[in-house]
Design a protein that fits this description.
With 404 residues, the chain is mainly alpha-helical. It is 53% helix and 10% strand.
Length: 404
């Protein structure tokens, strides 16, 4: 077992509470809290029990975690089953991506590791009804998006899968026999049942088997079943790897989950290069974390300045409209108080917290503030209108009270 365990939170906006509650009846992970005042949902997730698909792909792609091709095919089947299930219940997920898919490990499951493990889990989705605030990707049904996700998994993970043979010609032959036919079916207008049938046929053709008692860790007969098990060099590296991981998690926790994920994204590829003769990596946690923290602080400062200007502009516009009907002495102090309340409300909104869900939302920080500002713009206008209306309502009530 490798120590990649820490707690995290995900925050998403939602539009329809009744539909979301219907979703949560059969597709919920971790500890869930609905905030009706902000139309947001928060998931508190224990990473000992749950694995984000985006993270798992990164671990495999980096050569850090070992997984069989048979396990990869099984994962794809479960993804297809889950999308079919939700849509059979009349529920749409139009904003599915790798960061919103989670594997819930069962009690009898092992954890992904440097060596092959027996994995038992169910698939769950988060982020129902919440747009991709970090991009301009359009809404798309889960049953269509899952085909793109299957292609991503193959493209990123297949080259890191260890087969029985190391011969490149043999690897290409296996790719043509198994991967290519499945990928060929993953078109937007194709039937998911056909993809399921194709995967099942390939698993049967290549004698998929799983029996933990016989060390058959969910593999095909072309999977590597000799190397990277208990007693291997990779297995002997686990204690030293865990020392480094524990240090990273402990150090990163003072900065938050985004910085933890950033540090892991930097450290794991370095670790993967030396697993068979592992020694402590030369990794400056402080410098990396401080750099990431400074970047986040800089972006937040710039974002706050931009929001302050926009809020002030909206307040002035709303006051101008109100003053056509009412004549009250609105002071600069009143305006400043309004501005502060609105900005505080914005930074507690799901539109900002969404960007703190994971480092993977925007790992390069490109156009980060632009996306955040775009996400909160409609919220800013409605909040300004609400607060200005409240201010005038209070003044009207004071006037009535003075006249009595």
């Amino acid at each position: 077992m490798i120590n990649l365990f820490y707690d995290c939170e995900e925050v998403y906006s939602y539009e329809n509470k009744e539909l979301l509650e219907k979703v949560l009846e059969f597709d919920s992970i971790g500890e869930v809290n609905l905030d009706e005042s902000n139309n947001s949902i928060t998931y508190k997730i224990n990473r000992r029990e749950f694995i984000r698909l985006r993270d798992l792909i990164f671990w495999i792609e980096s050569g850090f975690v070992r997984i069989h091709l048979g396990q990869l095919l099984h994962l794809m089947l479960l993804l297809l089953y889950q999308t079919n299930l939700i849509e059979s219940q009349g529920i749409d997920h139009d904003y599915l991506d790798l960061t919103r898919i989670w594997l819930h490990l069962r009690k009898n499951s092992q954890h992904p590791s440097l060596i092959y493990q027996y994995l038992q889990y169910s698939i769950h989705f988060t982020g129902y009804q919440c747009p991709f605030y970090q991009s301009k990707y359009p809404a798309q049904k889960a049953s269509i998006k899952v085909k793109e996700i299957i292609q991503i998994i193959f493209n990123r993970c297949f080259n890191s899968i260890q087969l029985k043979w190391t011969n490149e010609n043999k690897r290409k032959e296996i790719y043509d026999q198994i991967v290519k036919p499945i990928m060929g079916l993953c078109q937007s207008n194709s039937n998911n049942i056909n993809i399921i049938t194709c995967i099942q046929d390939k698993m049967k053709q290549f004698n998929y088997q799983e029996d933990i008692k016989k060390n058959c860790f969910q593999l095909l007969d072309i999977d590597d079943y000799c190397n990277d098990y208990v007693g291997s060099k990779r297995q002997k590296s686990i204690p030293k790897v865990n020392e480094d991981l524990t240090s990273i998690l402990s150090f990163g926790s003072q900065y938050g989950q985004v910085t933890i994920e950033y540090l892991l994204s930097e450290a794991i590829p370095m670790m993967s290069q030396h697993l068979e003769s592992y020694s402590k990596i030369k990794f400056d946690y402080f410098q990396k974390a401080q750099k990431q923290h400074d970047e986040i602080y800089k972006n937040q400062r710039m974002l706050k300045d931009q929001i302050q200007k926009q809020v002030l502009t909206f307040i002035q516009q709303e006051l101008k409209e109100k003053e056509k009907e009412y004549k009250f002495d609105i002071t600069q102090e009143d305006i400043k108080q309004l501005q502060d309340e609105i900005i505080s409300s914005i930074f507690q909104s799901p539109y900002i917290k969404y960007f703190q869900n994971t480092y993977w939302i925007n790992p390069k920080n490109q156009d980060f503030n632009t996306y955040q500002l775009s996400a909160v713009s409609k919220f800013i206008l409605s909040d300004v209108q609400e607060k200005v209306n409240l201010l005038f309502t209070i003044n009207i009530l004071k006037l009535i009270n003075d006249l009595i």
